[in-house]
Design goal:
- By secondary structure, the protein is an alpha/beta fold.
- Bound molecules: pyridoxal-5'-phosphate (PLP).
- The site of pyridoxal-5'-phosphate has 14 residues, from α3 and α4.
């Protein structure tokens, strides 16, 4: 099922998550149209990348066509290449694993931890400490003989991975960290913005994200030279733009000024939108508190989650289980959605090593994301809660 805003029957369907466009987007986009600055060079591109980098607490931002391209470039600049391995979670949308694959590298999938459903950093520690070895200054996975080249934590659903423990591993094993913060702009770990803790951070602005540019991404980098290289690679690696000389293979990955203009309008409302997401999550949490069979996603004491997607774990005997509940909600005009098939089970990444992913498998079977658009009214949210609890308490 997909619901475009224009197709919603009045007062009828409650979609999972639709864009909120209530700021100066029209004004900024019109400015591009009026001035002819519509393509990938323009003042809004620079303003947007600087704005996202500032929100992420990183020095440098590079705007790109989408979050997947941001991940691809960040991993490349982190030094990941053919035959390398990248440690990442199994429970995530597939894009970061695909970005690893684009570089000819291999994902190693870690489980989710049961409390906040994020990448299990303790399991990653066990893998690096016990299943890898250093030889000639290179960290290798003993079972495959491949170089382990990077850590790729994904802050799923708006909540941070435990970045303190992860950054310790980064230092101890000399591994760069690429944060996939595509779902978590506006969230923090111990007060530090997500995407701004590792060496690189990646954001997405597709239609269901907290902010949208229709489609778009930004990669942020700690290191200025890395950002310069990112700009070079994302604009076809031009060595001489007049003579069209190219020493390396580049990509046509830059965001357009039109999309960046929309992003600048969206960015002005980031704090308000994250607050709205948090209010929605708090209402669900309060409604489901103490209800046998339901466990709403939790927030760690060290986290300020952006609560991108309000998600509840449903026991198999509550409402006939998550898929049955999804069906029941759908019959009442309410859209809900399971989490992603864990990637160690995905045919697209068949054969990749995993470290034991039972929590991810359980969450896949039991978790359900509920309507949580920034503009969700309290009446519509009550309708969702009533539909879940009404027939099942
Ligand atoms: C965790 C995660 N990583 C990467 C992406 C890719 O972003 P995009 O759709 O902008 O390519 C998404 C969203 O689609 C995502 O949820």
């Amino acid at each position: 099922m997909s619901f475009e805003p224009g197709a919603l029957p009045a007062g009828g369907m409650i979609p999972l998550c639709v864009p909120e466009i209530r700021g100066r987007e029209w004004e900024y986009v019109k400015d591009c149209l009026d001035t002819g600055w519509v393509s990938s060079v323009g003042s809004y591109v620079e303003r947007f990348e600087a704005g996202v980098a500032a929100r992420a607490g990183q020095g440098h931002g590079v705007a790109v066509v989408n979050g997947t391209a941001a991940l691809h470039m960040a991993l490349k600049l982190a030094g990941v290449g053919p035959g390398d391995e990248v440690v990442m979670p199994s429970l995530t949308f597939i894009a970061p694993a695909n970005a690893v694959h684009y570089l000819g590298a291999h994902p190693v999938f870690a489980d989710a931890e049961p409390d906040y459903w994020q990448m299990d950093v303790e399991q990653v520690r066990g893998f690096l400490a016990e299943e890898c070895e250093v030889g000639n200054g290179v960290l290798r996975n003993r079972s495959t003989g491949r170089r382990v080249a990077a850590l790729l934590p994904v802050h799923i659903l708006g909540h941070p991975v435990e970045m303190g423990a992860l950054m310790e591993l980064s230092e101890r094993f000399g591994l760069p960290v690429v944060e996939d913060a595509t779902e978590s702009l506006g969230g923090t770990w111990r007060g530090r913005p997500l995407g701004g803790i590792g060496h690189f951070g990646c954001f997405s602005f597709n239609g269901n994200k907290i902010l949208t540019t229709g489609g778009g991404g930004v990669l942020v980098a700690r290191d200025k030279q890395a950002a310069i290289r990112a700009r070079y690679f994302t604009t076809q690696a031009k060595d001489d733009p007049v003579e069209y000389r190219h020493e390396e293979v580049g990509y046509n990955y830059r965001l357009t000024n039109l999309q960046a203009a929309m992003g600048c309008g969206q960015l002005e409302n980031l704090e308000a939108y994250v607050e709205a997401k948090r209010r929605i999550a708090q209402r669900y949490a309060a409604a489901f508190e103490g209800r046998p069979g339901l466990c709403f996603m939790r927030e760690a004491s060290w986290a300020h989650s952006a609560f991108w997607m309000s998600t509840v774990r449903v026991d198999p005997d509550f409402g006939g289980g998550s898929r049955n509940l999804m069906h029941q909600l759908g019959m009442r005009g309410i859209q809900s959605r399971p989490l992603w098939q864990p990637l160690h089970l995905s045919g697209a990444h068949r054969g990749a090593q995993h470290l034991g992913c039972s929590v991810a498998e359980r969450l896949w079977k039991e978790a359900l994301s509920l309507p949580c658009s920034v503009g969700l009214s309290s009446e519509d949210q009550e309708r969702v809660i009533e539909a879940i609890l009404g027939g099942n308490s």
